[in-house]
């Protein structure tokens, strides 16, 4: 029989043992990566910057430290060209932003054109309805010989004429918007 000296024995709570046994060795690399990200990360860091820094950290770790990194010609050339690549990236971003603004303006103009077309269609339908009603009132006036129907028909025709003027102004507005869209 072997005697155990309890004075030097370490007693671990069962919860800790359970948690340690849950973590597999396959996740250790991913967990280590999160720790490295936390060390490298700065506020408001862009995703591209984080990826680049992680790539550098991983390479430095894989070769065994900063002093063992080989400074070869392609690496030095890449460093020299970094500012040009950055300027190119900024130009691309500006171009994307400009394109997006133009697309947004175009979309806004197209929506306005749709609104004007709908309004034009609605006014056209109102004019037709007013003229049809005026014709019916004229027919009624002829059949009944009452002048009040003629008066009502004339009022409807005046209203239709005003709406026709609105329709002409909408046509002008629509044509100017289409010209704006072509630009």
Please state the structural category: mainly alpha
Task: Quote the average pLDDT.
Answer: 82
Unreliable runs: 3-11
Radius of gyration: 40 Å
**Outline type:** rod-shaped
Q: What's the multimeric state?
A: single chain
- Helix tally equals 6
Q: What proportion of the residues form beta strands (DSSP E)?
A: under 5%
Largest sheet: none
Query: In sequence order, what are the helices and strands, one letter per element?
Result: HHHHHH
End-to-end Cα distance: 97 Å
**What's the total number of strands?**
0
Helix content estimate: over 70%
Question: Can you put this structure into words, describing what you see?
Answer:
The chain has 183 residues and is mostly helical. Helices cover 80% and strands 0% of the residues. It has 6 helices and no strands. The protein has helices at 14-22, 28-40, 47-63, 73-80, 82-144, 147-182. It is rod-shaped. 3% of the residues are buried.
What are the defining features of this structure?
183 residues, mainly alpha
Brief overview, please?
With 183 residues, the protein is mainly α. The chain is 80% helix and 0% strand.
Please specify the SSE layout and strand pairing:
Blueprint: H1 14-22, H2 28-40, H3 47-63, H4 73-80, H5 82-144, H6 147-182
